[in-house]
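Data availability (excerpt). The following record was deposited with the supplementary files.
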Amino acid sequence: MASVTISSKDVAELRARTSAGMMDCKRALEEAGGDMEKAVEILRKKGIAKAEKRAGRTASQGMVVSYIHHNNQVGVLLEINSETDFVARNEAFQQLARDIALHIASADPIGVAAEDIPAALLERERRIAEEQVASEGKPENVRSKIVEGKLKKFVSERTLLEQPYVRDDSKTVGDLVKEVSGKLGEAITVRRFARFQIGAA
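Predicted structure:
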């Protein structure tokens, strides 16, 4: 049987529904041939799923945290959400919020996720990449692939959840959120942030 390609989006959705670990979710989806309901069943049978379907639950509680860098030149406001007020008051959740705010101050992301990056900015980056590739004299048949690779790299470097975490670059900020979400047994979402820097537009 041909192996099914499992997307990280499907793994994340299954994880949000079951609270199971990322690798357990990936294996269950592979075993289920990509069928979400079947994968939930597999995890439940194995006793890995910690919660019944949670797709209907929303992260509508949470907190707004502020961070001012020691030089008073950079400041961050961050909204991070949880499903319940109980988790929002938890020290691990609050520490996560502080850690992410500090990361934003240091790494200067443009948006939370790829879809938050303005289309005009992506278009500009695409034009730059196309000009670079053309000036390097790359063969026509590989140019578009190289341009797409450069764009993907730009998005991952400037998107909060895809950036390597400043205090531990072996994981991304998204991984950090998932870790804490797994420990607390609730979906946690970074909703929005604003970063202020002296002299910046």
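Summary of structural features: Helices lie at 8-18, 22-31, 36-45, 85-88, 91-107, 119-135, 140-158, 173-184.
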